[in-house]
Amino acid sequence: MHAISIHQFGGLNELIYNKQPRPQLNPGEVLVKTAAAGVNPIDWKTCSGNGASGFIEEFPFIPGWEFSGVVTDPGDTGFKEGDAVFGMIRFPQPAGCYAEYIAAPAEQISHLPDAVDLIMAGGLATASLTAWQALFDKGGLEAGQQVLVLGAAGGVGHLAVQLARWAGAHVTGTASLHNHEFLAELGCEHPIDYHNQSLNEYANSMDLIIDCVGGETGISALPCLKPEGVLVTLPSVTKEQVIAAGAAQRRRVEPILCQPSAEQLNKIAELVADEQLKLHIGETFPLEKADEAFELSQSGHVCGKLILTFDGQE
Ligand SMILES: NC(=O)c1ccc[n+]([C@@H]2O[C@H](COP(=O)([O-])OP(=O)(O)OC[C@H]3O[C@@H](n4cnc5c(N)ncnc54)[C@H](OP(=O)(O)O)[C@@H]3O)[C@@H](O)[C@H]2O)c1
Predict the structure, then answer these.
(1) Which pLDDT value is given to residue 36?
(2) How far apart are CA 297 and CA 288, in angstroms?
(3) How far is the C-alpha of 174 from the C-alpha of 297, rounded, in Å?
């Protein structure tokens, strides 16, 4: 099967489009013919020797943790051949989703409703699960509360805005000015241009902050929290810094590590099918152009999600 793999950690040149053996099925797994795989910042962070690289025990390593596709071998599971599925699997252990075939744990994937586009679904699982778990599991969001999303136009941010609105919360979000119309379409009531506007006027007003940017950006938003509020910070590389700043200011900061969850994916798929949640595709790339997708993701200014597509070659 065709796949993207790396044979050592490094830059974009390490990504090689080549043939790799199809994965073998273990009990409880289904074999999926991949339709699309989402690109997330963790993918290039890991390939460069950061991110989840500590979990890689051997090369070649096939990147990618999320996918959509069609079941070709259901193994001993309840899935059937031909089922359309999507998911985020095994994270942070290697999952090999930048490949034409994926062995996926059945308990971590979800059926895709007919109404949901198969390519779009390839980029849905990681960002939506992260947004869900940050808002509801870590943040305990309730209707009527005030939420601030830092990085509201990005992969996680644009889904967090919509899920927070769906839950009945009021949403403020930061993004570059050219993305403010997009934020308004998502339901963000107060878009902030972080290049030119300070957060001063929002002091002590937020029940929950979803920090998709981290570092100094997350720290500078801490005064926006109400005394009992919580900031959930996503980028793991700066989490200690943000937690320490929160402790110094007596503000609650929670780090997060996104977990696979078929149960949450079922709910998310339902919301997408009902058009209550939309994944915005920033751009698609054929699998062999994964390096171009990584380069764009590294710019830090993707709107929505980047998705790799597969042409069905074997
Ligand atoms: N812990 C976990 O389990 C977990 C899970 C998922 C993601 N993450 C991490 O969370 C972060 C966000 O992920 P993502 O997929 O949403 O990334 P992304 O799609 O690459 O984020 C891009 C967005 O970031 C915005 N941005 C950049 N600098 C900003 C700033 N200073 N203030 C406000 N917005 C800014 C950009 O907005 P403009 O273009 O409008 O400027 C752009 O829309 C990444 O570091 C990722 O690794 C962690």
Answers:
(1) 98
(2) 16
(3) 18
Tokens 């937020």 belong to 206
* pLDDT < 50 regions, the chain: 313-314
Which residue is it, tokens 């339901």? Answer: 187
Answer CATH for 127-255 from 1.10.1840.10, 3.40.50.1580, 3.40.50.720, 3.40.50.140? 3.40.50.720
Q: What is the rounded distance in angstroms from the CA atom of residue 221 to the CA atom of residue 229?
A: 12
156 Cβ below 6 A of ligand 1: yes
Does residue 159's CB lie within 6 angstroms of at least one atom of ligand 1? no
Pairing of strands 29-39, 305-309: antiparallel
Residue 314's pLDDT is: 40
Ligand 1 site, residue 210, Cβ cutoff 6 A = no
The matching CATH number, chosen from 3.90.180.10, 3.40.630.30, 3.40.50.2300, 3.30.70.100, for 2-124+279-309 is 3.90.180.10
pLDDT of 311: 79
- Left if phi > 0, otherwise alpha if psi is -120 to 50, otherwise beta: which for 205? alpha
Confidence (pLDDT) at 313:
42
